[in-house]
Amino acid sequence: DVKVTQSSRYLVKRTGEKVFLECVQDMDHENMFWYRQDPGLGLRLIYFSYDVKMKEKGDIPEGYSVSREKKERFSLILESASTNQTSMYLCASSSPGQTGSGANVLTFGAGSRLTVL
Amino acid sequence: GQNIDQPTEMTATEGAIVQINCTYQTSGFNGLFWYQQHAGEAPTFLSYNVLDGLEEKGRFSSFLSRSKGYSYLLLKELQMKDSASYLCAEGNDYKLSFGASRGIKAAGNKLTFGGGTRVLVKP
Questions:
Q1: A91-102, pLDDT tens digit by residue?
Q2: Which chain A residue is nearest to residue B33, measuring alpha carbons?
């Protein structure tokens, strides 16, 4: 019954490395999101996408980029990893109109814990 | 910008009731969500309020007052398995405009989360 799958549960990378975090959903959702979660700061939105090949910056996009070539897949890219990007990364997807008012309910993946040394 | 406040931590006894408060300040409001997150796991959806009042789902209830920018999550008959973080999140309306020829696509909303409230249930 897996719905949002993140490819790596734990990663350890070195400063300056390029990092790819992959996310796949099997619910045919239009919307996909990348958040990072840090103690005391909660979940912060990095990027989101409302359609294939479409991306929008969230609240903290600096140092990140994304790719959405297919509807089911949304990738987060760290071009040059830095120690302050050590975090838990959560991918989520949703579809418009899941509630009566049109609001979206997010379904999250299990998360990818990235450590940058 | 958005500012969502909720307590950092709460402790309660098994069988008791706990109320987690959440305040928010923003424009473009489109609903207030509550998620539960057990340690090391993904957040899971609990409840959603867009109109004022109380929504009840078994042992969990959520309340919203839009005029006060205030919501709470009420957990009744606490069980040990309720020990988790509870995340308050505000839905912000988001629409994409493609110009006069294609109009506006209502794409839904994105969520802004509070820091979460860690609830510890003791025997």
A1: 999 876 655 555
A2: A105
Question: Residue A105 in contact with residue B48, Cβ under 8 Å?
Answer: yes
- Bridge partners, residue B115, by sequence: none
Question: Among all chains, which residue has been given the structure tokens 């989520």?
Answer: A92
Residue B102 has pLDDT above 60, yes or no: no
**Interface touch A45/B110, C-beta < 8 Å:** yes
φ and ψ at B71, to 5 degrees? -140, 155
Give the residue from A105, A107, A112, A113 with the most B CB atoms within 10 Å of its CB, the best one to mutate: A105
pLDDT, tens digit, 9 for 90 and up, residues A13-55 = 999 999 999 999 999 988 899 999 998 888 999 999 988 888 9
Instruction: Give the one of A31, A35, A109 whose C-beta lies nearest to B108's C-beta.
Output: A31
DSSP per residue, B16-58: --EEEEEE---SSEEEEEEEEE-TTS--EEEEEE-SSEEEEET
* Amino acid found at B122: K
Q: Do B108 and A94 touch (CB under 8 A)?
A: yes
Q: How far apart are CA A31 and CA A28, in angstroms?
A: 9
What is the rounded CA–CA span in Å between residue B88 and residue B112?
Answer: 9
Which residues lie below 8 Å from residue B39, measured CB to CB, with a gap of 6+? Answer: B84, B85
**Residue B1: predicted pLDDT:** 40
Residues in chain A with CB shorter than 8 Å from the CB of B44 are 108
Secondary element (H or E) of residue A9: none
